[in-house]
Structure formats: structure tokens, C-alpha cells
Amino acid sequence: xxxxxxxxxxxGFVFAAAGSAxxxxxxxxxxxxxxxxxxxxxxxIYLALVLTVGFVLLTTDIAIGRKTGKSAIYAxxxxxxxxxxLGVITFLVPVLIMTYxxxxxxxxxxxxxxxxxxxxxxxxxxxxxxxxxxxPSSVWYGLIFMLLTALIVYNGVEEGIERVSKFIMPVLxxxxxxxxxxSLTLKTTxxxxxxxxxxxxxxxxxxxxxxxxTVGRFLQITLDAMSQLFFSLSVSMGxxxxxxxxxxxxxxxxxxxxxxxxxxTGVAFLAGVMIIPAVFVFSGLDGMSAGPGLMFVSxxxxxxxxxxxxRVIGILFFVLAxxxxxxxxxxxxxxxxxxxxxxxxTERKKTTRVLSVIYLIATAVIALGYSIFYVEVAxxxxxxxxxxxxxxxxxxxxMMPFISLLSAILIGWIxxxxxxxxxxxxxxxxxxxxxxxxxxxxxxxxxxxxxxFLQSTGVLNLIMK
Length: 465
Prior knowledge:
465 residues, Hydantoin permease, two-stranded antiparallel ribbon, 4 strands, 75% helix
């Protein structure tokens, strides 16, 4: 069944796709990894991967979507009937991600409320974040965020998703640039008279640190950058296939892919400029903890250290994070909605209503995973986690590298790269990176994805020991 909805044009598609790609992971995970993995060294590796692996994965998903006019399940089936299973696996990734993304959105919403109603002092209390997520009342914030997401998807592609993305993305870009510039102007004098400045923090961020570099260390940094790529570009989860199915045939996909790459990577880089200098000035690099610790613990302390202006920056930052979470959450729910519309031959509004009920329940369960439904499970990658961490591990660390591996085999050796190239050259446009795409898809992608899959399941660590 051909999708009846579509984006109005290239700008609408690029903003929506970039909105999906620019998520919370760009704002906390990218800066953390850059600080942990040698600053400029990580940036160089990540940029190289974006221009090669990221380009291949993004091009493949979008071209598959537009060429077939279908979402993941039926897109793969229309290519090869025996490969419908890959579409089903791909569909399951957003199904799992949607169970917890609104929960994270709810956390951000809570901090927006804190900064709007107080000086931000509450946010720097030692147990603020932990006390909040471990309280059953935290569930309401996640439910509100989920309802907002569902309302936008309910209104369709052009009137809902595209309209919101066209507003949010320019605002988000302006806010990121503005806070990044402000971050570079910061400075503080320590008790011993040493002065720390934002520009010193920028040097820490940008300068490649080769201290203690080994082959194993280089490989780990590369794997970190690769895993960030999945977070960042929304690839191998069916979202870009769905969005690609809404793209009109007169849109130049070559330009669109490049614009999405630039916008997404630019925001990730600027997020580092925004966060690392500020954290460096007020906390050194000790505050660069992973995950929620950076966004909900370290940064509020930085904002509070700024005095009155810190409250304003805190409001701006969490509104910015809320926008990023919302556009990503919308794309995840839209992917699920589009697949269900095709599977059950139902119209959008009815499908969205049913999915809203399902995911309001799922959001509540995951949000309560830190209180009423608390569990602690050992994961194959060596970490332990609650319900949210389990869903995140299965979808991002296990399924996405596996999907990319199978996709490389299907496109590289069964359909052949020329199948994608024809769609990229549909209107006479030149597929400038065709040779790169062919080599990457057939020979390099399968190897990279096998390594990443082994690493995410803990097998690679055992081998290296």
C-alpha cells in the first residue's frame, strides 16, 4: 500500500529527518565520548565515520524508503520476499525504543519546570535526580511528553511532523550556537589563583590527545564513535526508511543526505562546544560523567555556579534538550504508526489512538522501573541496568548492528549497490559518492558490523582478553 502522506518538499524532509537524527544523544553522549576518548582524536574518527559508514547507512535507508514507497516491513519484502524478516526486525527497534524515549523526555520536562519555577538551586541538590526518578510521581511527566508526541503524529506528516520540525529545528540551531558562544566566554578563578576559561575548555575538546594510545585503545574509540553514529543518524531502525517513503520523486536525495549529515554532525559538534568548556570552567573534567549524570547532575551544577544568568541558561538548555527529544520521539512513533497502517490497513488517526494507549502504558511501566517495578539485570556488555537500560541495550547495542550487517549483505551482494544508485540518480542527478558507496557496502560494512556486533554482545572483549 503506497503511503498517501508526503513531505511538501526537500526542506520539509531535511528538517524532519534532521530532527529525528538530532536527539538527546547528541547533547550528552557525544560530548561525554569526546571528553573520554581523546578530544580531537574522537572528533576526527567520528567525522571520518560520518562521511563513510554514516553516509552509506543513511543513503541506503532513505533510498529504500523512496524507491519502495513503503515502511520497513513491506519495503524489505518488496525487495526480496524471503527478506521480510529483516523488515520485521527493523520494525521492532522503534517498538522497543518508544517504550522509554518519552520517559527521558519526561525527565527533561521536569527540569524545565524546576528552572521556570525556581532559581535552579533545587536541581543541584545531591539527590535531586535520583529522588525524582525513584518517585512514582515521575510517571506523570513521561505521560505528558508521550501525549504531546502522539498529538503531533496524529495530525499527519505535512500538518504535524513537518510543521513542528520546520519550527523546532531552526530554533534549536540558534539556541545551540548561542549557548556555545556564551560557553566560550566563561571564566572562573580557583582558590589557588588559577584561572580557567572557556577557550581552554575548547582546546581540551578540539586538541587530539594521543596519550597512552594503543591499537586496542584506538579500536575502542572507533567503536565508541560507531555506536554514537547509530544514536545520531537514526539509521538501521526503519525511521529513515519511513521518512524516505514520504519523499517526493523530484527531491534530490544526494543533496538531502548531505544536508542531514551536515546538520546532525554540526549540532553534535556544537553540543560539545556548548558543554565541555562550561563543565571545564566550573568542574574541570570531573563532571563529564556518562548518561543522565552529565545532563541532570553535572550541568545543573555548572548553571548554578554562573549565578543569576545560570538560571536563564538552564532554561534555554533544557528547552533545547526538550526540542531535541521531541523531534526524535516523533520520528520513532511515526515509524511504528506507518508500519502498523500498512500491516493492518488502518487510517492514521485510529492507528495513532491505539498506539497512544499502548505506549502510555509502556511509558508508565518503564518510568516506574526505578521505583515500583525496580529490577537490576546484568547485561552482556558488562554493565547492569533497570528496565530502561534493558530496552536500550536490546534495541541500540544488539539489534541495530545486526540489522546493519544483514542490510549490507542484502544490498551489497543480493540486490547489488546499483539498485540504490538508480534511485539516487533518478532525476539525472549525479551520485557523486557512488564508488565509495559500492566499496563500503560490499566489502567494508559487513566487517565493521560484525566487529561492532561482537563488541556490543561482549564477545569481542572476551576475545581481546
